[in-house]
């Protein structure tokens, strides 16, 4: 199959891109990495009348830290985050653990983090991390710039708060403190499949007590989910000794948080290779294991800060 005919423009500034999106008079799509868009056009599931290629906008190919936050431009590729040193502190570790689950190296070399927010697939790793960490999405339109909190940005599969005439220019994340540990785990049927479930976690622990928990669920509803019921259960709880191996004791706070996330926070649906019972069990197990990974990461950071062996 081949895509239907379309017009193609290459703006040189953000205002030119916004003007093209607003003046097209037909459905327009933005091309950054194109790793989802080109396939959908090839299969004739998407029929844009206009493709706006933003790859000649150098201002969008920047990532910088300011005011205790990280701003990721719309042209920053996935592969940048494979090194945990690309982003300061625990946030860099979280990104590096998540990004290796995204497709394959050639796709990570072209695809973009912001493109994942634009596409809004329920199985997107970046989108769930954005929701869990209270990221903000920056959009530019004819009336200027505005920011939308990630929790309000996603409306369902492929549906977002972005207006047709707006361009997503960046996503902004708060940096994580050194007293925070992070984890990310993903379960899929094969390496070529989307995640059946994935979990991002950030735990802030002080004096053995969980001060704050953030949990993002991937492909557990029609949009990225923040597991607030599970977070509430963990906040103020004793972190306790780290579980040994993959089995988390049923009475451990992490196991209870996993069961809570599966029962109260997630809204999974049955799939051909995973019925509802299986999916809820997978969510419960993966949440518990990811929290254990985050707690181990926090303990390692605390030991390194004191000069002790991890």
Indicate the structural class: alpha+beta
DSSP, total strands:
14
CATH level-1 class of the largest domain: Alpha Beta
CATH architecture descriptor of the largest domain: 2-Layer Sandwich
Q: State the helical fraction.
A: 25-40%
**CATH homology-level superfamily of the largest domain:** CO dehydrogenase flavoprotein, C-terminal domain
Low-confidence stretches: none
Over the alpha carbons, how many angstroms does the gyration radius reach? 20 Å
Alpha plus pi helix count: 10
Chain-averaged pLDDT: 94
The end-to-end span amounts to 55 Å
Task: Sketch the major β-sheet.
Answer: 5 strands, antiparallel
Keywords: FAD, Flavoprotein, Oxidoreductase
Organism: Streptomyces lonegramiae
Protein name: FAD binding domain-containing protein
InterPro entries: CO_DH_flav_C, CO_DH_flav_C_dom_sf, Diverse_Substr_Oxidored, FAD-bd_PCMH, FAD-bd_PCMH-like_sf, FAD-bd_PCMH_sub1, FAD-bd_PCMH_sub2, Mopterin_DH_FAD-bd
Produce the secondary structure layout.
Layout: E1 7-9, H1 14-23, E2 28-31, H2 37-42, E3 50-53, E4 63-66, E5 69-73, H3 89-99, H4 105-110, H5 113-119, H6 125-132, E6 136-141, E7 144-149, H7 150-153, E8 154-156, E9 159-160, E10 167-174, E11 180-187, E12 197-206, E13 209-218, E14 225-226, H8 228-234, H9 253-265, H10 276-306
Parallel strand pairs: 1-3, 2-3
Antiparallel strand pairs: 4-5, 5-10, 6-7, 6-10, 8-9, 11-12, 12-13, 13-14
Helix pairs in contact: 8-9, 9-10
Keywords: FAD, Flavoprotein, Oxidoreductase
Domain FAD-binding PCMH-type: 1-178
Protein name: FAD binding domain-containing protein
